[in-house]
Amino acid sequence: MPDTTAPSPARLVVQQPDAARSFWQPVPANGFVRCLLDQASTGAETPFAFGTQTVDPGCHVREHLHDQNEEIIFVVAGEGEAHIEGAVHPMRPNACFFFPRNRAHSFHNTGQGPLTFVWCIMPGGLETFFARIGRPRVEGEAPPPPFPRPENVRQIEAETLFGTLPAR
User: Which ranges constitute the DSSP H helices of the chain?
Assistant: First the structure.
């Protein structure tokens, strides 16, 4: 059992939104992510990554699952739907979702404005995926025109934290 009286090796981190690593996201999500905290930036003993994602109106985060990770989603703003293994659940401010490993899910912005949610994944890896498929973003800059996912997106998914969806 760890010595809980010893000082933690983790660092206190205060992250302001304009200082966070941020990436524009390709179609079909569009929008952007902010990667606020992770094990590398905090020295945390427990591997994790934490940030936000904003999905443009009419866009979606495609169906996926994480075979080695657990994920928490907390909706901050906007309206949408979470499609989870054939069931549809409203995404509205203060809705919260916990996804155990291997639970297929997708997020759809059905509202008129942006859909923004907080994500936390344990262990981390989502921040690496977002950086590899996205384009660097500076707070306040105009969004780029929609751009495609990289041609090797399946390889990037396999190298980061995505599992294989069951055949249908």
Answer: 39-42, 126-133, 153-159
- Helices H / strands E in the chain, number of each: 3, 11
Say what the pTM is.
0.92
Of the candidates 15, 14, 10, 32, the residue with the CA atom closest to the CA atom of residue 23: 32
pLDDT digits over 94-149, tens only? 999 999 999 999 999 999 999 999 999 999 999 999 999 999 999 999 999 999 99
CA–CA dist 34, 37 (Å, integer): 9
Residue 130: DSSP 8-state: H
Pairing of strands 70-77, 96-99: antiparallel
Domains of the chain (ranges; CATH) run 20-139 (2.60.120.10)
Q: Residue 107 forms beta bridges with which residues? A: 61, 82
Q: How far is Cα 74 from Cα 137, in angstroms, rounded to an integer? A: 22
> What band does 93 get if pLDDT is binned at 50, 70 and 90?
very high
**Tokens 């981390």, residue located:** 124
CA 23 vs CA 11, 51, 66: distances in Å: 24, 11, 21
